[in-house]
Amino acid sequence: MLSCSSTLYTKFFLTNGAPWNAVCKKNMCAGNYASDGGHQEVVNIIVDHATKCEMLLSQAILNNDKKNIVPSVVDTKEETDVSAQKCTKDEYLSRSVRYEGDNLLDGDNDAVMMEWERPLMAEHAKIICQGKKRVLNVGFGMGIIDSILQTHEPTHHTIIEAHPDVYAKMKKDGWCDKPNVTVLFGRWQDVIGKVTANSLDGAFFDTYAENHTDLTEFHQHLPRILAPGGVYSFFNGLCPDNIFFHGVACQVIKLELESLDFEVEFAGCEIQVKDEAWEGVRRKYWHFDFYYIPICVLKSRGGEGEEEGQGAGKKQRIE
Ligand SMILES: C[S@@+](CC[C@H](N)C(=O)[O-])C[C@H]1O[C@@H](n2cnc3c(N)ncnc32)[C@H](O)[C@@H]1O
């Protein structure tokens, strides 16, 4: 952190094993200090180093025992306060959740989903479903994105949801009886094989209590289930309390998706969450006043899917 104005010292420390993501008591890492001080060259060095580290770690987790290796970009702080605790919860699916007011809460009063996300969900829906398309949503929650997707009149709409209480609500609200909807009840890890190859024009992913590795693992399925030109997006809540970590995590995901043959962009949009929105919620899980929407288009193989309309999500840049 003290070396953040010097490219020489930064390189020296990083190549000699200094952790790029160590934070001070203010939850600031060297990259935050370099960025705040306007030392762009140092920022670039740290981002480059961090991205390599995180990609290697992510691959190691995928190839080995994912339970024993923890992605450092996500879990760097000691568990001193609630905001520093891990968001992953192994027991989430076996404990009840409740719909209360504008939110869906778990047994710890952590928010599974909140109404303030509606405008973001509307943007995600627009990106993955322009016109009459075949879409997939993973994680029903409050059904916000699914309700919006229905207004786009998709030709087919598949929903994957794993929580029994959420599934009960879906049944009660008639989601299982809609003519153009298929609900797959189960963890996406267990039911994704039921989604036919090349059967989707758009896909959205937004689960709860999972981590970066689960997201990376989900991405491995996309080239099979999406048709060429298909558009993918996900709730971008990566490292939501530190802008430098957020930037590194976005870069890592971008490279991972590019290696799977996607073109990836992040479209920025402003988001304002009022303080009252968090009343009754144990942990504030969003801290920025802007949001980067991932727009990921599966490249056409051998010229397929290049007609107008295919892959149109890429053009949907939000300024
Ligand atoms: C944040 S909510 C989704 C909110 C949704 N985007 C909306 O617009 O209301 C996450 C949902 O993912 C579900 N979920 C968590 N883990 C899952 C898994 N492995 N497979 C499928 N669904 C999962 C949760 O039960 C929850 O309903």
TrEMBL record:
The keyword S-adenosyl-L-methionine applies. InterPro entries: RMT2/GAMT_Mtase, RMT2_dom, SAM-dependent_MTases_sf. One of its GO terms (biological process) is creatine biosynthetic process. The keyword S-adenosyl-L-methionine applies. GO terms for cellular component: cytoplasm; nucleus. Residues 82-319 form the RMT2 domain. GO terms for molecular function: guanidinoacetate N-methyltransferase activity. Keywords: Methyltransferase, S-adenosyl-L-methionine, Transferase. This is RMT2 domain-containing protein. It comes from Triparma retinervis. The lineage of its organism: Eukaryota, Sar, Stramenopiles, Ochrophyta, Bolidophyceae.
